[in-house]
Amino acid sequence: MPTRRPKNPTFIAKQSKPVPHEFVLDAISTLSPKTRFMFGCLAVYVGDRIVLFLRDKRTGIPDNGVWLATTIEHHESLRAEFPNMRSIQVFGKEVTGWQVLPVDAPDFEESALRACELIVARDPRIGKVPASRKPSKRRATL
Fold first, then answer.
1. 46, 119 in Cβ contact below 8 A?
2. Which of 43, 60, 85, 137 is most exposed, with minimal Cβ within 10 Å?
3. pTM to 2 decimal places
C-alpha cells in the first residue's frame, strides 16, 4: 500500500498569489512577458525592460490599477492618450516616473488594453531597463 503524507501544514503547497488584472498579460502574451511578484504587486517584463506593475491591494487603494514604467518627459504625450493617467501616490512625491491607469477610472480596461497595444508596438515611451545592481561591499572585498 502506498504511503501518504501526513495532513501537516508544513507539507501543504503554498498557494500562488492571484494575478491582478490578468487580462493585461493576455493582451501582451505574444511578447512572452515574464512576471515577478514585488512589493505585493506583479512586475511585468518584456525582454530586459520592465513595462508594467499590476496592482490590486487592500491598502493604498488609489494606486490600484496598471502602472506604466515611463519617464517624466513622456507624461504629456501619454496623457493625451490616457486622460485619467496620473503619478502614483504611494511614494509620496507629486510627480513620479511611474504612472497609474487607476482601476476606478471609467475607462480603466480600455486604457489598459491601449497601453498593451503600445507595448506590443514597442512604443519607446513605455518601459525602462532597471538599473543594474552594484556589487555589495562584502563581495567586492572577497
1. yes
2. 137
3. 0.78
